[in-house]
Amino acid sequence: GNSVTQMEGPVTLSEEAFLTINCTYTATGYPSLFWYVQYPGEGLQLLLKATKADDKGSNKGFEATYRKETTSFHLEKGSVQVSDSAVYFCALINAGNNRKLIWGLGTSLAVNP
Amino acid sequence: EAGVTQFPSHSVIEKGQTVTLRCDPISGHDNLYWYRRVMGKEIKFLLHFVKESKQDESGMPNNRFLAERTGGTYSTLKVQPAELEDSGVYFCASNQQGAGEQYFGPGTRLTVT
Fold first, then answer.
1. Considering only Cβ atoms within 10 Å of each terminal Cβ, which end of chain B, N or C, has fewer?
2. b/e map of B78-108 (b: 16 or more CB within 10 Å)?
3. Residues of chain B contacting residue A105, judged by C-beta atoms under 8 Å apart
4. Are B26 and A43 a contacting pair, CB within 8 Å?
């Protein structure tokens, strides 16, 4: 079946540190991959996405590259800010799954000044 | 343009009681999805409406859950009778036909005591 494995948190970093949150997936076919973010007190927001192998999604300084050979979609940011403190979710949609999102557990990130 | 809204934001009920959650999607979005996140676990798909029709309800846990979308606008999710394991955050999302990104509401936190 389809699944997403995401590194567990919480992750605590100092401002301007480098961030990596690992995400690997199992899917039949060719899924689209997503990173969603939930800031404190808010709903889930799409952060970035990639729809085919080798695509790189990017937004707000965050990047993730769709790696089919390693079935991964790791989230990276070169220099985190306090405002990046949130919960980050990796997810996929497989065309055969009728458009439902399959989610990772979520990784809580706290950035200290 | 208003985003996806959910009501209430938080509900605390006793085991055996009934609760109804409401979701108002973005105007014009035919697709409406319900998801749930139980504490410590990943977000799970519950069901998917296309207009007023249930496209996929494979994630509904059991027959204590009833979802409706009369008229293809807002949706309700009723839990009757509620059990302790129903506690969690219920998210609603919507998008247009053929769209990849799903737009999420802030969620309803349900606590069953």
1. N
2. ebeebeeebbbbbbbbbbeeeeeebbbbbbb
3. 41-42
4. no
pLDDT at A98: 63
The distance of B40 to chain A (nearest Cα, Å) reads: 8
Size of interface A-B (CB pairs under 8 A): 54
| φ, ψ at B41 (rounded to 5°) | -125, 170
- Lateral strand order in the sheet of A75-77: A19-21, A75-77, A62-65, A56-59
With CB atoms and an 8 Å threshold, state whether A101 touches B107. no
At residue B92, does pLDDT exceed 60? yes
Residues A7, A5: Cα–Cα separation, whole Å: 7
Query: In the prediction, which pLDDT does A97 show?
Result: 53
pLDDT score at A75: 98
Helix (H, G, I), strand (E, B) or coil at A6: strand
Q: How many Å lie between the alpha carbon of A65 and the closest alpha carbon of chain B?
A: 18
Measured CA to CA, the distance from residue B109 to residue A106 in angstroms comes to 17
Three-state DSSP at B109 gives strand
